[in-house]
Amino acid sequence: MTNDRLPGPSKAVSLPKTGEIERLGPSGRDVMVLGLEAPGFEELPTDSKIFSYYLYRAAIAGDPIMYMQNHRHAFEIKQMLEAIFTCPAEMPEDVRDSVHDYAKYFWIHHGNYHHGTHTKFLPNTMTRESLRGAAEIALANGADLKIGSETLDEKLSRLDRTIFDIDYETLQSNQAKGADIVATSAVNFYDPGLTHDDINALGSEWANKINVRFKNENGKAVPESFMIGGAYGCELETICHFLRLAIPHAESDDQRNALESLVEFYETGDEKLFRRHSIHWLKSDTTIDFLNGFIEHYIDPRGVIANFEGNVSFASSATLVDRLADNVLYFEKKMPWPDKYKRKQIERPVAKVVNVIVESGDAGPVSPAAYNLPNYNDIRRDHGSKNVMFLNVENSRSMELFKKMVEEFYLPEYRENQLKYRIDVIRPLEVYLHEIIGHGSGQPDRSLEADPRTAIGRVYSPLEECRADLIALYHMSDPKLVEIGAFEAHEQQTVVEAAYVSYTQGWMTMYDRIDGYQVREAHNQGHQLILMYLVENGGALHVDFGIRVIEQGGRFFVKIDDPAKVRVGIGELLGKLQVMKSTGDAPRAADLFDRFASHVKPEWKDNMIERLAGLNVPRLKAFVFPRLTPVMKNGKIADVQISNQEDLTAQHLRLSRLRHSTDIGKD
Ligand SMILES: [Zn+2]
Fold first, then answer.
1. Distance 522 CA to ligand 1 centre (A)
2. Which of 13, 277, 353, 433 is an S-S bond match for 472, by CB 3.0 to 4.6 Å?
3. Cα gap 189→461, rounded to integer Å
């Protein structure tokens, strides 16, 4: 065993690690790890770079929170794995590799529940015996396994079922009908032993709060707010340290107010301050932007408690996005739902295309393509929202793989248009319409007192994602898109049909993201609802939405008979979802999702999986972000450099070293 296998500072100058860096899993099919570039950072004014650096450190400081939220043992296991495989002591190569491999999955998913499916995964090659053997060697050689008052044996047996037993706490977030969704979910928002009734019994003040977890004290649910002095207090303190350093560099009053309210929110745990932060944040239209907070609700089975995410980005130009943002009210008027649920006024949304520098917690290494925030519906109604799309994330792909996919999965008559329009025209438009026109649209019925999120409950997130997707598909045929230069008038029919095909067929090619035959994740449920509602004609007799899944030569394909009828189906489903959202109709929404969105046909899925296997398509993309390094002068940051020299391992070990650190210039 020589030291050069160990991750550490790279020797001399090496080539930048961008594009595909490594593959994980059998045949490399689980994950494609890509090095993400952030072109244009170097040209930013020095003050913007320094501002970015502080926000970057604030994002990184919160990353451990996501492990802690995902499972009560996740952060501990991550620390143990890192200490073992980086231990320079002699140990069998395959043992060290098996621990290292599991650690990579841990970094990518922030624990051992899949980021997309919320179900547990096991180590690929690490066994009980190899873990124990490696841990013993590491411990004997001084590795810090955080044993505490336990023996190694006690620690390993306490963690054993969490790591090795797939039947133990299999679901991170169990939203199955009829289940006690709190008691049967492994997510660490609720201590073991607590039930849904225990949470409801605390009253709406606690049950509707986004920044709280519940301890089990002698069978009683005791709320613990996410705040300095409360849950994740040390992490939040470090975040606040860097946010305070960032404040003097803010580009506008709104941005400064957003930062100040965020610090106060973390100090007090008072959600009102996060709401105030969100309003200032959504109004700040600046070159450097950031996310930092408890934002998305996907892993909470109740859909209320939010998990940490952070990012930093800088604006890039995009005229199409601006023109869409100028026309939100135009599209709102043309929505296929009753006028009383249409917004009469919409402030022009802040819509931006950015290059992201770093994403932490829920936002990375597995990155969304875009976001539309805040999630508070009343703030969206009264103040609007901010839409941000990640250009460098969206652009990172393998073209070679794309061509092979089109060849394999699309009927011959669709292939040329997929190649021509899918990447440059359809995909960006889908994302822009989803984010800019979709999420911000519609309004609740005046009689609805609760936020639609609370009223709809467990299927709220899927409903909202589905609604935004449908809005993108629905408006794809609107003449306004020609007017604003999305494509030429003579191309519209072709683009519309290609968009319908690629949405439905494209989703089927992602069936490998589903565990078994059950669809759980919100966006995936949204895709599945659209596909099945359309091909099953909304479950009605004598209705035809003009789209089928056909079998040809042992392979399943989406076939469109009549794009105009498809649009009728899209409009019908969209109208239904909006009425459910506006009126808070939880039972109907749950029925619809249980009926169309929760299951995939085994023969379709098996067929997709078989064909995907032949192409070696990775199931997931994960990013290694650029590293920012401050250039110090007289104890102050004089400039900030950006580099792409790290691989996944080097990056995450550095994040570990930075935990709670407020040092600058030494990372
Ligand atoms: Zn969305």
1. 9
2. 433
3. 18
